[in-house]
Amino acid sequence: MDERIPILKLGKALLVTIQVDMHDRLALALEEDLTQKIVATGARGVLIDISALEIVDSFIGRMLDNIAGVSRILDAETVLVGMQPAVAITLVELGLNLSGIKTALNVERGMKMIAQTVRASDDSDDGE
Amino acid sequence: MATVPNQTSNLGAIIAQHRDEILAGWLRDMIGTTRRSDLIKESELRTQCSQFLALLAQATAQSTDVQSAPFERLREMLSEISRTRTIQGFTARECATFIFSIKRPLFTAIRESLGKDSNAMADEMWRTSELVDGLGLFTTEAYLKTREETIKRQQEELAELSTPVVRLWKGVLALPLIGTLDSERTQIVMENLLKSLVDTGAEIAIIDITGVPTVDTQVAQHLLKTIAAARLMGADCIISGIRPQIAQTMVHLGVELNVVSKATLADAFAIALERIGKAVTTVRPKG
Fold this sequence. Notes:
The complex is a heterodimer of chains A (128) and B (287). Chain A is of the alpha/beta class and 128 residues long. Chain A has a single domain, classed as Transcription Regulator spoIIAA, CATH 3.30.750.24. Chain A contains four helices and five strands. In chain B, helix 4 packs across helix 7 (118-161). The longest helix of chain B is centred in the middle third of the chain and has 44 residues, at 118-161.
């Protein structure tokens, strides 16, 4: 059985905490699982906590960007939280600015961001 | 090396014999060439010179190799002299001339002592010349070493001084940049900023570039990298303090920063407060 990264459902958001070293297959599996889960649960936000991630390469960087892209198409907003300074510098030096992804310093703020967007879209739904 | 270690020379005896003449001739030569009366007192110089001569006489009695053990005290003294002279503001040439100007009085003394035996005189002169050259080079080396140490220390101090991260409010950091941004400094600035973001949990960082003399495409690139890295960690950046000429240059160069920029740090701070939901109000004083 393949190693998988757990995806937790928290209200209208999905919470992914990456606590192991990301290797390429794991990242691909995560993208796959997350896509399925968004559709299955109708989640409006995805929070990816990478505070334990120490090493990134261009592939992982691109995977994060892809996940955000897929989520956006499925009407869920991705927030990346807890990035380490060294990881941020590495990604910038690799030319990966991840401009499509929202970021926050920690899980708490990330959840607040998602809650805001969910509420905003709910309000506009009610207005119709 | 041409000199044979532990080869004894008569120089020690000659110096002891003609000490006063050599000293007088040496000081005269130095006054004629490069003695800087504005930087060093004559009495101090005289003390240094006589001390040097005494040590030289002592050392040459045992060896003529500058790197050998008998010369250790002399080397120490020369290091100390060039160190203090560097700090006093002597040039490299002035420092080396201190040693080289001893040649003429030494040669005169040798000629007086060994004038009858031309072979012995030639040998002694060659040895002395080599010895003085060795000491001169040693002095120059010591001088350069002191200089290098000074430069290195100043560089480190500058790097530390010029990249502070200041906390303006809870959740708002300011980064006043002073001086030109090169790759190395950008790296330090970026690391400092990101570390402070983690430590303080700030959401907004204001990068103030009032002290940056020029902004070309490369500096802009470095700024953008810093901003991108801060954004990845979940903090927004505001640029402030772009001077009028710099704004013009940036537009002419086609540099686009694509971030919120404000003319002054105060304006940027106002925006930052607004974003974190705080406001500055006037309070009527009591009484």
